[in-house]
Amino acid sequence: MATDTRVILICSGKGGVGKTTLTANLGISLARQGLSTAVLDADFGLRNLDLLLGLENRIVYTAQEVLEEECRLDQALVKHKQESNLSLLPAGNPRMLDWLKPEDMKRIVDMLKEQFKYVLIDCPAGVEDGFKNAMAAAREAIVVTNPEVSAVRDADRVIGLLNTNSIKPVQLVLNRVRPKMMANQEMLSIDDVTDILALPLLGLVLEDEQVIVSTNRGEPLTLNSVNSPAAKCYLNIAKRLQGEDIPLINPLEESSGFGAKFRRLMQTKIF
Amino acid sequence: MTLRDIINKLLRRQPASASTARERLQLVLAHDRSDLSTELLDQMRREILEVVARYVEIDMDEGAVSLETEDRMTALVANLPIKRTLNGQIKLIETPDKSEESSQGTEVTNQDA
Prior knowledge:
The structure holds two protein chains of two kinds.
Chain A: E1 6-11, H1 19-32, E2 37-41, H2 49-52, H3 63-67, H4 73-76, E3 78-79, E4 86-89, H5 102-113, E5 118-122, H6 129-136, E6 140-145, H7 149-164, E7 170-177, H8 179-183, H9 190-197, E8 201-206, H10 210-217, H11 221-224, H12 229-241, H13 258-266
Parallel strand pairs in A: 1-5, 1-6, 2-4, 2-5, 6-7, 7-8
Antiparallel strand pairs in A: 3-4
Chain B: H1 3-10, H2 17-34, H3 38-53, E1 56-58, E2 64-70, E3 73-85, E4 103-111
């Protein structure tokens, strides 16, 4: 039995910023480090974590049957085909939302804590009941955002709610970073976002077309395409979660050659 | 200001959009975080001035009450220039060597909810 389980909420406020992709890739990365990890899909309305992990055809029971005591927890857990250290607890039917309470989420997570070292909760978008239920069971949180005004604003709302519920530490992942646009100052910089949200940066993830390819296949990047730019970022985030001191990549140095040098020169602060 | 900003200014081009994004965000977040509408803020300002005016004579037009946000801490800052105390004995504003005391700042700090 793991007594020091880390229960981490992965949330964003805004939808479509990359919560589920981060949950899937972080789950695979942690499992690859030999850590028993459970990913819990708390998005009962619009579940997708099963699809990103390629496990959609192997679901028999869900969190719903576990809560209604129609099956045992291990009957509902879906073990990943290639990474046996990773298990998914699928979200139940959307009708669950009518009766689900924060206590129910706590019960499920308490069960998971007995078997796993890490429990990652994939949170639904929004700041309503779905988010509040998911938050009730978590101890720490990762806020995912994009360098865009709407995503940062929504992240700020979520951070306020996490603070009032004494969830800590709360760390930031800046997703879908486009080095070229940042260099041209046509995208909020990393400092802009961390200053505004006042959170420690756990990592940034570069924009990467391979993310779409990997979701098409149901194979997270960190599983088979470890050399793609985004996969490296996810792996670094997993290592930092484990306390390893991995330096952040500088997106401005990601592109090389004359063009990049010129863009860096243009960013020089004069006053 | 960066080299690019200066060149943009010289060429009368629109500034790069990141700085616009930053400024718009800072403004909208100050309001999101305080959860106070401009009407409520104005009402609070008037009531604070009324209370203070019971003790000292203040310049009703000069008093400023505002919200300032830094590092997720929102502070209510009131700057109320005092004309004189009500019993009229001490006219702070007319005492040359004590002129710095003529304006007194009150600061209430609250953890952002």
